[in-house]
Write a structure and sequence with these properties.
Its main location: membrane. Belongs to the mitochondrial carrier (TC 2.A.29) family. It is a single chain. The protein is built from 16 helices and no strands. The protein has one domain (about 5-15, about 20-220, about 250-340): Mitochondrial carrier fold (Alpha/alpha barrel). It has about 375 residues and is mainly alpha-helical.
Length: about 375
Amino acid sequence: MSQAGAAAVVPAASSTRSSSITDVPWDELDKPKFYTLAFTSFLGLRVLLHPTLVVKTRMQATGEVYSGTVAAVRHIVKQEGMRGVYKGFGVASLSLLPRQAYFTIYELLRRYLGPESSPSLYMSMGAQQGEVVRNMVAGAGASVAMQVATVPIDVVSQRLMVAGIAGGEGGPTTAAAIAREVYATGGVRGFYRGFAAAVMQFAPTSAAWWSAYGLYKFAPTSAAWWSAYGLYKEPLAARIDALPLNLSEEARQILVQATAGYLAGATTVVLTNPLDVIRTRLQVRRGAAAAGATMLSEARALWAAAGARALMKGLGPRMISVAPASVLVVTTYEYIKRVSRKPAEAVPESVRQELAAAAQLCRRYSGQPV
């Protein structure tokens, strides 16, 4: 990723092999190939994961209609058939386009915050802490930018998911009709209902996810620093190396990335579920019910109705969706980067020199021999 021999050279605590968990620098990617593969791959993932999004949205937005995740799935399929769990799929899939921008912005911010562009960050904090801040800021910045494009899509797609069901709020049942109603009652601002809640949920989620992923994936310079964050007393890669498995280097990298992705996803799901509940309820409200609704009023109403339990609604389907989805998304993303890498001779010499310099700086700030 970006200048990102930086991340690639985060050093090992236990073995030299642990340092071989690498990233592909953004400057070395064949961009047309990368974007084409990313769009088609993530469309396939959307087909797999959309039903969990429908179930989560129904549970959060329709009170006590469903008693649990399994009951919700059974009820939807019984009443509406398999089409029911794919409500809003077409509209929701439009978010795949801004998702390409999300990864681009994330990578560019990482490049800007790399050890060569921002050496003071690494000199003051060290390599690992510098990487945490780098991933955190890049993840949050990319998420905020993406919400501008995806919140209107979410407003329409989530209303489609709850349209015409018991416990919902009634109203139009097609994407075009919903969009017309949103515009008629709230103008352009209507499409950004829940924008603040989305930013407050997804920016910290993105920041936490990329930071956690980097922490879980890469080995730190010292076991003491690692365990101080309550993660591992030894690096994830070292633990995987200790398993009685005869893995190729490619399989080993995928396993480390998949495990780190799952742990990062599970961590962020638990931390951000209350914000997800509030955002979803704000976005599916209609008419007069929407006029005075705020994040605070929704939180108070949920707490009054069912206490803390209300803020954990949909946790099951979110965990089923987000944690495994994190594995699929990150391993797919990392694989697409690997297969989209330009041949070494196609990378300009100036870029290779920049990446080598960034790697050297990161080693220096880590206290390793340069």
